UniProtKB/TrEMBL annotation:
Gene Ontology process terms (BP): DNA strand elongation involved in DNA replication
Species this protein is from: Candidatus Amphirhobacter heronislandensis
Subcellular location: Cytoplasm
Protein name per the record: Beta sliding clamp
GO cellular component terms, semicolon-separated: cytoplasm; DNA polymerase III complex
Amino acid sequence: MLRAERQGESFRQASFELGAGTLTAQLIADEYPAYARVIPDAKVNSSTITIKRDEFLNSVRQACAIHDKAGDVIEIIAKDKGSSLEIVAKGTAEEDSAELDVGLEAKADAIHCKLNSTYVQDMLTAFEGFDNIDMAFKNGKEKLLFSPKGSSSTLKYVVMPVR
């Protein structure tokens, strides 16, 4: 069943009743952000690293095992012309830390950034079925663009670094 709610002269909200659940959507009142500002152009970014999806996901999960709560920060480090990506996670206790290496498909440009581990795991889960993931970036302070390597898929995932 579809139910629309009127606010003033226009409809601003719709509810869909599906079995035992209800999905409610509301019209965005503000201007939606420009696509180009939200999703960076991979060609404009200066570097791209190709990562094996399964290995990356397993390493992120292992590193996060020391966290006391969900959503903690992991560090992603690639040395200039390096062949691996280092994933570092730190717990609340000084001795609680994890450092794991993920092999890269090609030599990488240097990057050092901090990312929310939950967002990284969500992204890698969304890319299930793809063997390799491209991570395009300018530096470790601006948004990173993840996409399936060599696929015709238009699937893209943007992750903002944690400051």
